[in-house]
Amino acid sequence: MLNAQTLQTGNYTSSDGNYTVSIEQNGDEISLTEPNKSNIYKKTTSGYYYHTEPKYNTYYIRLVGNNKFYSGKNDGNEFLFILSSINPSEAIESVDNCPLYDKYLKLSQEDPAEVQAWTFCGAAAIAKCTYNTEASQAYNKTIIAGLKAILEDQNRCPCEDVISKSEWDAVPNY
Q1: Cα separation of 143 and 136, whole Å?
Q2: Tens-digit pLDDT profile for residues 106-137
Q3: If we measure between CA atoms, which residue out of 100, 64, 68 comes closest to residue 84?
Q4: Per mean pLDDT, which of 9-23, 55-69, 96-110 is the most reliable?
Q5: 147 lies in a domain?
Q6: Helical pair 99-110 and 115-130, crossing angle rounded to 10 deg
Q7: Which value, to the nearest 10 degrees, does the dihedral of the CA atoms of residues 92, 96, 102, 104 take?
């Protein structure tokens, strides 16, 4: 019976390979750890597991085996996640272990005149720490466009340690 299934503890990667989360199930609760947060999903009579973030939406997990699940939000798309590792030493990266993010967070707090630029750089740092290379580069295109919209010198990236020169140059100036 599907509702009686238990997910195997481990890391699960989205079917597109761009995102990894850590899962641990204990009875009627599933702990899902993302790179930037952890949430507890609680089982309902429907067999789905739900978590609500009042400012945003209600999110769910739907089991389809002991090593894969769908995750989504009400009125949103579903994403398939498949067990990718059962080795606890292969913990997912997070902002808790991202010195580049810490660097830009500190700069954003200490340099109010450039807070917007440092915040963009911090977002790029999070992508570098949590996404694979392809997903990070795709995300950075938006970050670069935002940075170029606010910078006086659009030819120089303020955070070359998280955005490569080739990525920067590939996005047109305004």
Answers
A1: 10
A2: 999 999 999 999 999 999 988 887 777 788 88
A3: 68
A4: 55-69
A5: yes
A6: 170
A7: 50
